[in-house]
Amino acid sequence: MRANVVASIDIDTFDEYKIAQSMETMPIESGFRVIITDSQTKAYYDSFSEESYVGKLLVYESITEVLVNNKNTSSYYEKDGEWVIEAAVPIVKDQKTIGSVFVASSGEDIDEIVNHVTWAILIFGVIIIMFVFVLSVFVATLLTKPIVKLTTFIKNMPKDKLQKCEVDSSDEVGELVVAFNELIERVDELEEKRRSFVSDASHELKTPLSIIKLLSDSLIQTPHPDPQFVKEFLNDMGAEVERLTRIVQRLLDLTKMDQTSKLQIDMVSINNIVSEIYEKLMPLAENKEISFVLNKPDDDVLIPVDRDSITEAIYNIADNSIKYTENGGSVKMEIMRDLGNVLIRITDTGIGIPKEEIQKIFDRFYRVDKARARDTGGTGLGLSIAMDAVKLHNGYIEVSSEEEKGSTFTIVLPYNSDAAPPVEEIAKTENNLLTEE
Ligand SMILES: Nc1ncnc2c1ncn2[C@@H]1O[C@H](COP(=O)(O)OP(=O)(O)OP(=O)(O)O)[C@@H](O)[C@H]1O
Ligand SMILES: [Mg+2]
User: Fold this and answer.
1) Is this model's pTM higher than 0.85 or not?
2) Cys-Cys crosslink for 408: which of 65, 321, 347, 429, Cβ 3.0 to 4.6 Å?
3) Of 57, 84, 105, which residue sits at a domain end?
């Protein structure tokens, strides 16, 4: 570019003095060497006075290229360990090349420029890095501030009391705090249930233990007890031990329901399960002269259930029906199907349940008539075990009851009808089970 500027100089004749005069007005930085030659490569101007080329022929490839081909040239090369930049352009007058302008810069200058640019890039880079660093620290602090607040809140929460955190934003962190608070609520509810369960269970266990203690104390304190009296006391103590065993067994059943991983899901025939329960309960029904009937459909289905827990659920409900039906009444067990569900319905003509109590009978340890329950040996856990088992299978239990008339319990268990194997498969599966055993 500098060469082009110089080439615009108005030259009539190649006269050293005139050219030198004209060049005085040219903006040429120190460090750049400008040489002007005529068409014969003879130098008429040299901006360097030391070892000046004026009057000498400059047989430089770049100059001859310019003069012969009328073409600008430029090159950048290393000489004696220094970088040099050169450019040459023709001086044209009346469309004729009358000379050339040759510009070269010393290596030191280029190094200086390169150094200058390198430093500029370095400083600029450092400033950019520092800026990005400060900006990211600022943004990170801004983003993590609410999370740090939540973490501190959780860390400082008293160990014996769960507390909710204040929600002060509606962004993702706000949503996290809301979810955290919901979790706290759920944990609180579970803790409350656990506490009341432990207290109810202890109370239920304490009653038979107190009775046993009372009976044994009175035996000890009687100096010469009548053998008949002793036998009666021992019988009562035995009954209480049985009751204790029953409660403990029920509690173990409940614990099993809490551990879903212990469930063993198999395809089982619902007709078979209900028939087995029916057979087991028949003697109890006969004792009370209850008409006990089972209606099962001809077309059976296999449903994916944990055999033990579902058997327990149906058994507990059917057992209640016989237990809470007066002598001479009737109890009916039915298996039905609707779209996607198997229904097991147990209907009795028993004492019924007051409307306001129906919701509570599935609560743990709940019995409608506590005095009567003691006679029947009821623990109040049978229905809650049944409900847990059915819920674990994504089913539900429907109840309708009328006092003095009777009750109907319906267990609804879903099955995927596509997956339910046809009836013929049942025999095959059960044969396999027998063979495996
Ligand atoms: N078919 C029914 N008819 C009338 N009352 C019932 C019937 N089924 C349940 N109940 C009432 O619901 C209460 C809770 O039943 P649940 O089976 O949970 O306990 P339970 O029968 O007393 O004790 P367990 O089942 O451990 O022997 C019973 O005490 C009884 O009052
Ligand atoms: Mg029961």
Assistant:
1) no
2) 347
3) 105
